Amino acid sequence: MARQGNILLVDDDPSLRRLLALRLEGAGHNVESAESGAAALRALERFNADCVITDLRMDGMDGIDLLQRLSHDRPTLPVILLTAHGTIPEAVTATQRGALDFLSKPVDKDVLLARVDQALDQAGVAGGDWREVWRSRIVTRSPLMHRLLEEARLVAETDTSVLITGESGTGKEVLARALHDASPRANSAFVAINCGAMPEQLLESELFGHEKGAFTDAKQAQQGLFRSAEGGTVFLDEIGDMPLALQVKLLRVLQEREVRPVGAQRSLPVNVRVLSATHRDLSEAIEQQQFREDLYYRLAVVTLALPSLRERPEDVAPLARHFLDGIARRSGRRARVYAPDAMERLCRHDWPGNIRQLSNVVEQNVALTRGHVISPQSVDKALSGHGRRSATAATLQPLAEARDAFVRDYLIQLLRISEGNVARSARLAKRNRTEFYKLLNRHEVDPADYKR
Ligand SMILES: Nc1ncnc2c1ncn2[C@@H]1O[C@H](COP(=O)(O)OP(=O)(O)OP(=O)(O)O)[C@@H](O)[C@H]1O
């Protein structure tokens, strides 16, 4: 069923506005028109738009300015740009800054309706239904991601085991949670565990539980994650790092749908859905006999491969704004903004650490920015810091700068641990408060940014 949505149409040419509105209304959409970027922002205060179509060149606030405002204020609202002959390069740049797409004038009716349908799909407007909440934590404008989310939504309705693959920091856990939220198990527990983070025996008892007295430290019986997730979902992160002996036990649990706590005589039935994730190439691990092939086929009935951030550069700007908003909300202060050149640099970076690295860079930028606007220099500094380990003679920092960077990182870590509490941070650093405040000032770190 074709989607029908609320479309805000922005163009300073009244005849084009009328024509496009007629076409969109003819397809069942609800259309509101505005003659400028400023009028569009006013209209959005009362009109609940699912998609904005805006001309690129307009007097006053043009399409790019409007896009920038919307990317900041409404990062998930899809924006389509209308371009006349000669403005296509600008529109291409705009898609890198977060525009969903662009349409060349004269606008072909079928292309218009197809693009709008795609935009409504992105906004989560499904066949006339209202937007979906399950994917609300996933900020994206990438068509690759939208296809993946569509697959995720379909597979969420079943009890199929899903293996999520992707480089570190691409959002595997976020996707697993969204899958759970979209599933019929959404009202039961979602329990996540990192299989690479603990020794084998501890992992076994964490997963399957233990009886009282099963081993020296087992003072109390513990039911284990599988049983505590009864009716819900277990998410096994870094499954590729699970020790082989435990892989056998996990396979048995998946086959029999029963768990046997450490030290128990009997197995107990469990009803959980299993999602797992890895950043490793499991086929290579299977070849090297580090991962059981039979377990792989049990876990990877469906595989969802998350693209790296390099493969979806259009997500950098909306994600950066999303993280700025998050920091502002936590500190109760107005969100900072990136200067256009600074945003350009973020968009050009290749993000080996993916979204987690972007989130750290944004946090570092906020910590180092006194005013409202984050400068390109601040971005360069944060990015060179992240590349420190692979520095060459050309990029190596002078000692004074490296020392400053170290002290700043140290202060940020303290404030993270103490959630912005200066007295506690000063105690941890074994410095008196006055001295500690001086350090914060000198390194332009603001404790308010770390308050929860
Ligand atoms: N699409 C997204 N929108 C908003 N935030 C995201 C998105 N994807 C990831 N994040 C955030 O990025 C960080 C890393 O995500 P996550 O922990 O899910 O990645 P991961 O692939 O599981 O990483 P790892 O392999 O290191 O365990 C988290 O803070 C998460 O909230």
Automatic annotation (TrEMBL):
Residues 6-120 form the Response regulatory domain. PROSITE patterns: RESPONSE_REGULATORY, SIGMA54_INTERACT_1, SIGMA54_INTERACT_2, SIGMA54_INTERACT_3, SIGMA54_INTERACT_4. The keyword Transcription regulation applies. The lineage of its organism: Bacteria, Pseudomonadati, Pseudomonadota, Gammaproteobacteria, Salinisphaerales. Residues 138-367 form the Sigma-54 factor interaction domain. Transmembrane segments: none annotated. It comes from Salinisphaera dokdonensis CL-ES53. CDD domains: AAA. It comes from the Bacteria. SUPFAM superfamilies: CheY-like, Homeodomain-like, P-loop containing nucleoside triphosphate hydrolases. Keywords: ATP-binding, DNA-binding, Nucleotide-binding, Phosphoprotein, Transcription, Transcription regulation. The keyword Transmembrane helix does not apply. This is Response regulator GlrR. The modification 4-aspartylphosphate is found at residue 55.
